[in-house]
Design brief:
By secondary structure, this protein is an alpha+beta fold. The chain has 16 helices and seven strands. It has two domains: 199 residues, no CATH class; 126 residues, Homeodomain-like (Arc Repressor Mutant, subunit A), CATH 1.10.10. Strand 3 and strand 4 form a beta hairpin.
Length: 365
């Protein structure tokens, strides 16, 4: 993975903010240069107001700090919050029926995790609901950077959870507006009014979002999200189509060896009914059976071009008990036998590159 090269024209979170994010780790004796290198970030960024990192690099850095310290809160509190406890918190609300329910369960769990964290909800008049965050940081760290990075996590995580950007109505922060020499506005990503020097730190949600259904329901989904290195400076993901949602679930099931998952299983994962899922896919000119067949065929084609496994081994790997069954299904997908497909395309550099990328993304072994 290439490092993030920085220069005087770099736009992103500057080196002074990067230094602030690492303060908790440094106070615990960690070498910031080593942690930056482990995050695939040029160590010269550290403390340099003329250098910057981008959104994916920020995700890598935050995760590196969390794993190095085994602390969700980056070493900014007296009492750490171990990652295992964070996993338990996620499990407590991943199967909730809506964002509003997940938010309330998450707040109750978080409130019990640490005396240094005090989240709460303020029922406001009108269409807004305020999520208040109270953080008691240790001396020697920049509390403002912690508030910002936690708000970034909350915004992107819950947007990912419902499959579209949260419609934040306002953000309030106790600290002043941060100013970087490169002109980067680290609060612009929230796409809502921001009130600085406020009496409390809070995010105000639109009440219409509270009924939004969750489209993710497993820790594996959560781990896959971070493994994809999302860009935390970009807009939160737009609402996924039913095709994309169905495809995500089928890929997860195929990784678990369930190659012919019935629509009832997939619909249950998506918290919908089989008939409704069929209709929703039909409106997108898709069918459940076509998506399931295509995903299996794409993976078969990737193994044929990006690996040297025998055709029979690929068939068994993809859940076919008989070589003939694999060949028949592959012909129905590709219009030719597996051997003919490999011979026709193995010397096509572009197709092999695409196959390699897909195999790296969805490899089973």
């Amino acid at each position: 993975m290439p490092q993030d090269e920085s220069d005087d024209n770099s736009i992103g979170l500057d080196g002074e903010a990067v230094q602030a994010l690492l303060q908790g780790a440094v106070l615990q004796g960690h070498d910031p240069a080593a942690m930056l290198s482990a995050s695939a970030i040029d160590p010269s960024v550290y403390g340099n107001p003329h250098a910057a990192i981008d959104g994916p690099a920020l995700v890598r850095l935050v995760r590196q700090i969390q794993f190095s310290l085994d602390d969700v809160y980056l070493g900014f509190f007296v009492q750490s919050c171990r990652l295992a406890l964070e996993a338990e918190r996620l499990l407590s609300f991943l199967h909730c029926g809506s964002f509003g329910e997940a938010l309330r369960v998450s707040i109750r769990f978080t409130d019990a995790m640490s005396a240094d964290v005090g989240p709460g909800i303020s029922e406001e008049h009108g269409s807004g609901l305020r999520h208040i965050c109270k953080y008691q940081t240790i001396s020697g760290v920049d509390r403002n950077i912690l508030v910002w990075i936690r708000f970034v996590w909350i915004y992107h995580f819950f947007s990912w959870l419902i499959g579209r950007p949260l419609a934040l109505r306002q953000i309030s922060v106790r600290g002043p507006k941060p100013v970087q020499l490169n002109g980067f506005d680290r609060f612009a990503l929230f796409r809502c009014p921001v009130k600085f020097n406020a009496p409390l730190d809070a995010l105000t949600y639109d009440r219409n979002d509270l009924t939004a259904r969750l489209i993710h329901s497993s820790i594996q989904d959560y781990n896959d999200y971070y493994a994809s290195e999302p860009d935390w400076f970009a807009a939160a993901g737009h609402e996924l189509s039913w095709r994309d949602r169905t495809q995500q679930v089928l890929i997860d099931l195929q990784r678990a060896g369930l190659w012919s998952a019935p629509i009832e299983v997939v619909a249950a994962r998506l918290r919908t009914k089989p008939r409704r899922l069929r209709n929703d896919l039909s409106h997108e000119s898709e069918s459940f059976q076509d998506i399931r067949t295509r995903l299996r065929g794409e993976l078969a084609g990737a193994y044929l071009l990006a690996s040297d496994l025998p055709v029979t081994s690929i068939g068994f790997l993809l859940g076919f008990s008989e070589p003939g069954s694999f060949s028949r299904h592959f012909i129905s997908w590709a219009g030719m036998s597996p051997s003919a497909y490999r011979a026709a395309h193995v010397n096509d550099a572009a197709k092999v590159a695409v196959a390699t990328s897909l195999l790296n993304e969805r490899r089973l072994t």
